[in-house]
Amino acid sequence: MKTLIVYAHPEPRSLNGSLKDVAVSTLEAAGHEVRVSDLYAMNWKAVVDAADFGGYATGPLRVVPSSGGAYDAGALTPDVTAEQEKLLWADTVILQFPMWWYTMPAILKGWVDRVFSFHFAYGVGVHDETRYGERFGEGTLLGRRAILSVTVGGPQSHYTDRGINGPIEDLLFPIHHGILYYPGMEVLPPFVLYGADRISGGEFEDAAKRWKERLLTLETTAPIAFRRQNSGDYEIPSLRLKEGLEAPGRAGFRLHVRD
């Protein structure tokens, strides 16, 4: 297994840093290849601007055609090209990050914004009466698996159906479905470590053990059963789920997961 870990935390001695180290040591000990993109150590540029596209930047700047033109011409900046090559090299992708303000840190979102360029991660495939491009279960990154390893400050009870923050599955849906599944990756259930601000040494040992167990079963874990866009479940071009396919009472994000 070839694994890319994209790690986003400014402190190497943090809980996230320790979980990243556990992943590297566990996977390498099992004979897998591992590469790490440590975004803070790389001083990753998180903001998309015209400099990303060189002579292919439109004026005024339109990010979508500019990124597509630069990608097609092989003219994206070297840092972006290197990350795209890592994604194509990997068969498994781990995003390691703390949940800040209900989402990923800005530097990791900036990695997505710049690396998932037009014609690389989206805007591929034909659009006709039966298909709406190659996305949501198809696309450039098809055949790869992805998993989130997320630390959360609050207790698990806060992130349930009746919890004040809402279900963790809903909070992670934009990343799972809209970032990872969109370009074709299979998305595994996340590894979530709650109460991260108050974890003790013994609790970390237990968490590290559970994380190791997850890491050693990445190849066999069943992915989240998201519906494929072009499988017949959605009307095209409206992309509305066809009536009657959902379980009784199911609504919201859960409509897009098969039973």
UniProtKB/TrEMBL annotation:
GO terms for cellular component: cytosol. It holds the Pfam family Flavodoxin_2. Signal peptide: none annotated. The keyword Cell division does not apply. InterPro entries: Flavodoxin_fold (IPR003680), Flavoprotein-like_sf (IPR029039), NAD(P)H_dehydrogenase_qn (IPR051545). This is NAD(P)H dehydrogenase. GO terms for molecular function: NAD(P)H dehydrogenase (quinone) activity. Residues 1-215 form the Flavodoxin-like fold domain. The keyword Transmembrane does not apply. The lineage of its organism: Bacteria, Bacillati, Actinomycetota, Actinomycetes, Micromonosporales. Keywords: Oxidoreductase. It comes from Micromonospora wenchangensis. Belongs to the NAD(P)H dehydrogenase (quinone) family.
